[in-house]
Amino acid sequence: MAIDVGQALAALPLAVWMRRVTWAYPVVETLHIVGLACLVGSIAVVDLRILGWSKALPADDLMRHVLPLSIAAFGLVVASGLMLFLAHAGDLIGNRVFLVKMGLIGAAGVNAALFHTGSWARPATWNDVAPLPARVIAAASLLIWVAVITCGRWIAYA
Predict the structure, then answer these.
(1) For 92-138, how does the pLDDT look when each residue is reduced to its tens digit (9 = 90+)?
(2) Cβ distance 24 to 18 under 8 Å?
(3) Cβ atoms < 10 Å from Cβ of 30
(4) What angle do CA 111, 50, 34 make, to 5 degrees?
């Protein structure tokens, strides 16, 4: 007998609680949106600086300042996103837009890893202008995160 993973996940106590407690889903969804705003906002500020905006602001100082917010916001987004997913796992597992969103989040992770491990990831050496690979990665980051947000909104209509 095959086990439907989506139904099994949706039957977990946390998933049931998310669906049954009137305020649970909207509160967790609000936390997800706040976390996403902080995450994407902090990433966008750095990406725009890498692309040449606010050259007077040292990129390494900005990145050092923003990274803790990005990490904390990412944790909030993952925790709240997992809770939202569990509440409707049976529906979401087969939702193409949800799957595209997950793929885009994976692409954002790969993109960030490329940036942080590349030889261009030392902003103190840039002399105000980021090298081309860093700018390409920053532009890709902005596009990927806009696509993630778009997919997040479209999930309900797919």
Answers:
(1) 999 999 999 999 999 999 999 999 898 777 787 777 788 999 999 99
(2) yes
(3) 11
(4) 65
In angstroms, the CA 89 to CA 11 distance is 9
116 phi, psi to nearest 5 deg: -75, -15
pLDDT at position 1: 43
Write out the chain in H/E/C secondary structure: CCCCHHHHHHCCHHHHHHHHCCCHHHHHHHHHHHHHHHHHHHHHHHHHHHCCCCCCCCHHHHHHHHHHHHHHHHHHHHHHHHHHHHHCHHHHCCCHHHHHHHHHHHHHHHHHHHHHHCCCCCHHHCCCCCCHHHHHHHHHHHHHHHHHHHHHHHHHHC
Which pLDDT tens digit goes with each residue over 56-71?
Answer: 888 889 999 999 999 9
User: CA-to-CA distance for 93 and 71, rounded, in angstroms?
Assistant: 26
The pTM for the full model equals 0.90
Residue 126 confidence (pLDDT): 78
- Residue 47 amino acid letter: D
